Amino acid sequence: MSQKSTIQAFPRLSRRAFWDTDLHSLDFGRYAKFIITRVFERGSLQDKQALMDYYGRDFICRTLTSAPSLLPIGQESAKQLLHLKDQD
Hints:
This protein is mainly alpha-helical and 88 residues long. It is built from four helices and no strands.
C-alpha cells in the first residue's frame, strides 16, 4: 500500500493577514515577498510557521532583511522567530 504525500502544494494560511484577498488566488511564487512581509506584519504564529515550512528559513530571512519597508511588529516578529539581530 502506498503512502499519500503529506507535502502541501501551498501553505495553509488564516484569514488574519489576508482578510482582503482570496487565499486560493494567491500566487505563492510570484508574490512571495509580499506574502512573507504581510504574514510577518499581520499573520498568526501558525501562519509564520507555515511559511517557514514552505519557503525555508534562509529565503524568509533574505526577504525580510532586504524588504524596503517592514512595520515594527514585523521586525520584532522576525527577530524573535528567526533569531535575527537589530543590525540584520
